[in-house]
Amino acid sequence: MKNLILVMITGFLLVACSSSDMKSEENVKLVTNYVKAVENLDYNAMDDILDENYIGIGPSKSDSINKENAIKNWKQNVENLYEKITYSKNRNIAVSTPEGEWVSNWADLTITYKGSGKQVSILSNTIYQIENGKIVKSITFYNEADALEQLGYVFINPDDL
Predict the structure, then answer these.
(1) Residue 101 forms part of a structural domain
(2) Helices (H) and strands (E) in the chain — how many of each?
(3) Hey, how many other C-beta atoms are within 10 angstroms of the C-beta on 30?
């Protein structure tokens, strides 16, 4: 009887772990597909992957955007600003928390701009919350000032004026 109970508990744990691993793999695949959509400048694919109630936050704490405006911004950037976006040293990890399922993406991004051909290289971390096979939230961190400096912007302390 004890052996039967141990076998049942072991089987239950294996199924639970396997199910969790499958969910993590699916979530990582979803984020991988989103990253590919960004690299391909494919805002239609982005639209398919983002949930209708999507909210994007960052890089500044006060920055936030809903799905409609996120797709609108990507479309404008693809048509007028970005020639190419390349993710290198790109890594994903899935995490399950009491608040939900998340995938964190770390990358070294190179963005090439239309017209000038100027490039910026930034280190970026985006954390995606996944629900029902869609991205419902993203929180992005990168040094925006570094990107602007690479484009030639100069920052002046107002006290020095």
Answers:
(1) yes
(2) 4, 6
(3) 20
**For residue 80, what is the domain's CATH number?**
3.10.450.50
The answer to the question of residue 59 being in a domain is yes
Which two tokens mark 153? 């912007």
- Is the residue at 27 inside a domain? yes
Q: Please give the Cα distance from 10 to 6 (Å, whole number).
A: 6
Assess contact for 114 and 123: CB atoms under 8 A.
no
Q: Which domain holds residue 8?
A: 2-151
Q: What is the mean pLDDT of residues 35-50?
A: 92
Q: What is the largest CA-CA distance in the chain?
A: 84
pLDDT in tens, 98-142: 989 999 999 999 999 998 889 999 999 999 999 999 999 999 999
Per-residue pLDDT tens for 3-13? 545 444 544 44
- Tell me whether residue 157 is in a domain: no
Instruction: Reduce the secondary structure of 93-142 to three states and give it as a string.
Output: EEEEECCEEEEEEEEEEEEEECCCCCEEEEEEEEEEEEECCEEEEEEEEE
Number of domains in the chain: 1
* Two tokens, residue 96: 């399950």
Tell me the pTM.
Answer: 0.80
